[in-house]
Amino acid sequence: MIHKYKLNGFNIVLDVNSGGVHIVDELTYDLLDNVEPPFEDKCPAKVMEKLSKAYAPEDIESCYQEIVELYNDKILFSEDDYEKFAKASVASPIKAMCLNIAHDCQLRCKYCFASTGDFGKGRKLMSFETGKHAIDFLLENSGDRPNLELDFFGGEPLMNFRVVKQVVEYARSREKEYNKKFRFTITTNGLLLDDEKIDFINREMSNVVLSIDGRKEVNDYFRVLPNGAGCYDTILPKYKQLVAGRGDKEYYVRGTFTKKNLDFSNDVFALYDAGFDQISIEPVVGDSDEYALTEKELPAVFKEYEVLAKRILDNEKTGKKFNFFHFMLDLDQGPCAIKRLRGCGCGNDYVAITPDGDIFPCHQFVGIDEYKMGNIDDGTFNYEMKADFSKAHVYSKPECRKCWAKFYCSGGCNANNYQYMGDIRNAHKLSCQLEKKRLECAIMMKAVRIFGEQEQ
Amino acid sequence: MKHIQTINKANLKESAQKGGCGKCQASCQSACKTSCTVANQKCER
After folding, report:
1. ipTM of the complex
2. How far is CA A397 from the centre of its chain?
3. E-strand spans in A321-367?
4. By CB count within 10 A, which of A190, A319, A409, B23 is most buried?
5. Can you tell me whether residue A154 is helix, strand or coil?
6. Average pLDDT value over all residues in chain A
7. A362 part of contact set with chain B, CB < 8 Å
């Protein structure tokens, strides 16, 4: 399977199964519409006749030979032989956990997927006892995985900072005994950040996600306190202080865009101009008429991703650089094909725990009773459901199977699939379209970095 | 080549042979908590 497209003056051909990316001339672009394996020694006469109206026969023949050579090198029209790895898969050890340490939040973000922090189930904080059980569960179920990931999430995790500290201390105290390394991360709205918390986060957390939506007016429209006031002026100095002390540890400022700010490249650059260089702005999740993205907004969103890609490239020309999370793509040293079959691993090697100790496949499933997998405090766990999630790979999802982007998004978000399409195996089309556009932009950006801008 | 330039190692197949160790980060644990992108994760083998 190949995927070819034109963007920013480049003709780009992705060989889906090898991951090969080829920049081709117009002739190759047209020829690829007319040929496919099995190949012959010479370009078929019919194809030659068709294309010779526009191209010289000797060029068509030499182009055909290049295509055949790449096919023989298994980097064009290469075979899809990964299904055996997907089928042979057994339920993995659990290595990552999202700890919803606080089902409460001080903000009333208009687009919140967690019902302003309580996931529709009442405002609660996790006890240390439950946090301890979660650590024990992870240690006991992580098999031979050396790195264990624990994300403090909410609601707003800093509303339960005392337990965050206790859980980190407890986990660290057990690392040696189990020969494991915990990697903690935290996602925060920033309101409660102070010197002590910033020091703790910068010492203990391998990654921190700082929520902010970009421009002040956008942030303060959506991310509001119960009295309606925006939070931008409160959080920005705290984020700057935290990032200044971060050293080489990871962080992201992370925002959400909705149909109210379809010019979201301005939000990305507002964050960059505010001094941040690790930036993520994501499309909103939800079905609010006022904010949710629909098919109608897609052309504008696609165009804006292109605008963003070009603005980032223009910025790089001036010798400056920042990372936009969703355009980050390593075409050589990215994740292995096995990882790409299943993506996030939710419900299989990744689970979320609520303040009550309930176990869900991930934070996006929290509150959906049908997907409650067990409870950390009473020791129950539905291994049957875990096995089902382990089988939710790109070959068991009908739309993914035939999609060119399957080894980049790896089957998409199972929670989105369930929430919008009724089944974890039914791809959520809108998310797919956005993901594909981001990938096309990210690959094009690689080409520009190698060849420079092309005339259009 | 005159018509086609390959810009990467195209080593996905090779990665399948030695892959699956599970040392790498779960994708949703980084900056994305709502939209899945896996190909930007690092191999940590």
Report:
1. 0.91
2. 18
3. 323-324, 350-353, 358-360
4. A409
5. strand
6. 94
7. yes
